[in-house]
Amino acid sequence: MAELQHIPHQGGSSIVRSGTRSNALATRGLQDLRCTEEALQWLKRGLELRQQCFDEARASNTPYWTDPNHRLGEAFASFERGIKSNPDHPELQFMLGLCYSDGEGVERDDRKAFFWTRKAAEQGYAEAQDALGCMYTNRLSGLDYGVPLDDVQGAYWFRKAAQQGHAIAQLALAGLCAGGDGVEQDYVQAAYWFTKAAEQGEQSAQADLGKLYEDGLGVPQDYAQAAVWYRKAAEQGLSTEAQYRLGLLYFYGQGVAQDYAEAAHWFRKATCGGRGHTDAQYYLGFMYQYGRGVQHDDVQAAMWYRKAAEGDREDMLQTIEGELVWAKSTDKGRSEAQFNLAEMCEEGRGVNQDYAQAAYWYRKAADQGHSDAQNNLGVLYDNGQGVPQDELLAAFWYRKAREDGPMDVEAQEIRVRERQSPQSRKMNPKLSEDQKKRIAEGA
Q1: What is the DSSP string of 296-365?
Q2: What is the pLDDT of residues 76-122, one digit of tens each?
Q3: Candidates 1.10.150, 1.10.10, 1.10.4160, 1.25.40; correct CATH number of 354-441?
Q4: 394 near 379, Cβ under 8 Å?
Q5: Which of 307, 378, 91, 327 minimizes the C-alpha distance to 208?
Q6: What topology is assigned to 38-129 in CATH?
Q7: CB within 8 A of 333, min separation 6: which ones?
Q8: pTM of the full predicted structure?
Q9: Rg (alpha carbons) of the chain, rounded to whole number
Q10: What torsion do the CA atoms of 413, 419, 421, 425 make, to the nearest 10 degrees?
């Protein structure tokens, strides 16, 4: 009996110990739940304060970072309180990283931004994974995340976010695939990820996907599909390149019925709001000059040519965020606009006749290798119109026109050389320093 009585006692002791562990686990679970709930409350509070700051800035038409009511500082403090309640909360980690990255409510600190963003990314938070990919690939000067630029790492984190359906990360990954940055160049993969992002309404991806269909990169060439995706991006009103490209398809009747009026409509859209798309401006000038889709109007033609001629394509490309496919586009529109404007100045069409202005714009186009402009500039030097008569410079530009383009200007060069002095005729393609100086001064 003693042995039997002893057995329940041992069993009871085991149950008590087991119950103690269960109670401890339950208590810890309850504490974790309370910490999570508290963290969520601080997160919610911080997000509300941040949104209030944005709303106030919008209402007063002032930059949000001026933050006169100190909303951002309170928001940052809320995120910090939340992270103390739950140090592993990924969204709070991401928001702290965002605040440090943008200097919202706290002094900007790139390395702390990287630290918190990475912690959130490693927990699978897609927004943080996308941001971390940007940190590894961001070429903006003045940033110091404490790690070197690394497209391979960037592609790794963009892919992590892209696989969770993050549209911006899908766009970024597609761009890396198209450019062969951090991954092997693969237009099929680029088209795949552009499609994923485009289907979520990402306008830059829609525009880039249209370009792939237009060029047949990674997908079969299909102008009709290109028009579909250009239109989706163009109608959102942000992608001037999509608007311009859609206009081109209508202008040439590729994938859509040729319609000059519709082409002019989209070219004009691409030039609205100060977003002067050089090539679209050139085409508008051309359409006004020849009355295609619009009423013939030389004054309007000259105006649009001038806008395109004065434009800066390189700067414009840098403002089109995400549209990586356009990086290899040529700047034909600007040099053509400069040449056409020069012709109008020379002939007095749409503007007052002005040989000096004609020479100015011919030179601008000539410096970009426009052979017709080089030839016409030679003629002006030959005749002394708008520039001092100079047989040396005339011969130089005639030669450049022959070398840079298909034009047959050899007869013109010979004609000028026959009028030169015997000493001048000894000139060869390797110009003397004095001759080079004269050419430079004659610009």
Answers
A1: --HHHHHHHHHHHHH--HHHHHHTSTT-GGGGG---HHHHHHHHHHHHHHHHTSSS---HHHHHHHHHHH
A2: 999 999 999 999 999 999 999 999 999 999 999 999 999 999 999 99
A3: 1.25.40
A4: yes
A5: 327
A6: 1.25.40
A7: 278, 279, 280, 281, 282, 283, 308, 313
A8: 0.78
A9: 33
A10: 20
